[in-house]
Design a protein that fits this description.
2 copies of one chain form a homodimer.
Chain A lengths: L3 H6 L3 H9 L10 E3 L4 H21 L6 H13 L5 H11 L4 H22 L19 H20 L9 H15 L4 H9 L12 H26 L4 H22 L8 H13 L6 H7 L1 H4 L2 E3 L1
Antiparallel strand pairs in A: 1-2
Amino acid sequence: MAGALSSIIHANPRARAFSTSNPNHPLLSRRPTVLAMSTTDQSYWSSIHADIETHLKQAIPIRPPLVVFEPMHHLTFIAPQTSAPALCIAACELVGGHRDQAMAAASALRLMHASASTHENLPLTDRPNTRQTVYHTFGPNIELLIADGMISFGFELLAQTNDPDQNNSVRVLQAIIEISRAMGSQGVMEGQYNESQYGESDGEKLFPAAWLHNVCKKKEGALHSCAGACGAILGGGSEEEIEKLRRYGLYVGMIQGIFNRFERNEWSWKEVNELRELALKELKDFNQAKVKTISRLVETKLCNV
Amino acid sequence: MAGALSSIIHANPRARAFSTSNPNHPLLSRRPTVLAMSTTDQSYWSSIHADIETHLKQAIPIRPPLVVFEPMHHLTFIAPQTSAPALCIAACELVGGHRDQAMAAASALRLMHASASTHENLPLTDRPNTRQTVYHTFGPNIELLIADGMISFGFELLAQTNDPDQNNSVRVLQAIIEISRAMGSQGVMEGQYNESQYGESDGEKLFPAAWLHNVCKKKEGALHSCAGACGAILGGGSEEEIEKLRRYGLYVGMIQGIFNRFERNEWSWKEVNELRELALKELKDFNQAKVKTISRLVETKLCNV
């Protein structure tokens, strides 16, 4: 992950399409840019990112039935990235856990995010103009079905990490509940629905601030909040640590949500800075050597150039 | 469930649409009809069915956010029924478990089946003629997103049944793995894909026997196989009992799959009878008083009138 926040800014295909299709739009003057992280921090995030990639490639080999695994492999790795899986691992390590303990949860989060992105890009008959720039390699029908399977597959990966030697079954079940809530009724699903109400047909209209706040909270916010909590749960964190990392994730996600929609937002640096301060407050009781790295998710200096 | 097999025959909207739109089709002479069950058997299945309905109505109240829970409630209860959830409960009771132990898994199976049916009926741009008779109360966009949420919600319901007093976390995780496999890469998803290759555009052509066999195995077969295994796992059954009820469910599901597509099949009574015999063989070592009722899923007398 070469610069966690650069991945934030480029995670949203709508933002990408907008910025390339209309390079002279006046709102582009508000585009945030990212200063590079230190080499140590960068190599920490890169190593997490590479480990998740390796784990997922092993979990989704291209094997029979090819009608299932070929598109699943493709859709998982072509989807826009999110920093939620990496946050899940970093949260696990912050509370003293080992990376392996959170690897399946991180992979599940990436699968579910890829599934949600795939479904969001499907050309349904009542949203025929949705993301016309998205090419459907396998056709919408198979992409619909495979993305359903990716949700189940994420839960399967996580449930399989039950290990009698680690006596971790209760923690794994807690993580399953966290992810199911974040992806379902109390998070991403509601955010996706609300966001879909402002389709591309609205052109370049700015999003209202209250609406933006809610969408960022329910989409990127819920996903990262869940990632922080899951990492802490699986790493054996205390109740207090779990709640702190849940809130840290929420603020990280909300900031990312704002930048994902930066070209059509009524956002202000004041709001971003407030969220950043709230986020950092949640980290102050942890091991400060480790905090330095995880806090880069919100501390990377942003310049309004 | 007034006559388990009558619900089988009427579970498939395609079959329904066919039978009403073309009452004089010669294949209708092969329509199987169902003789009534005994009152005792009928009341057993009806009570299971009512208990699942009550459990789901409590689990999905119409509450905020209404944009989520209103369509989720609607889509869950309007979807075609399947006997898999009832089989899950019956399998649990057959191995000596209590109905409550399998209630969340049965509800999850019903939610996932409803989700799969909803997605199967979505009018995508590359299958615009799909089930034109299906009315989309909330519009395809919201139905797509809510059905995603229903998958996660099913896993949430199941994971929440972790109970330290029952020390059941490992069994719950096993059931989650069973359901995720059946609904995903090793079952329903592949069946749906294969079935979608024979769309309505093929008119009234008969399905090839090998294709039919595979679709029935992967769709209804995988769902009922998983239901039998989950019921036995959650009821505390032995490994042997779990495997017997997994196979029993597979045969039940395959027979149901054949009848769900009875108007366009090259099926034969010989094949159905063979599957029925295989199914009954799996039950011979269980408590015979209880076997009498569960075996009604395949024993109800069918007349080729």
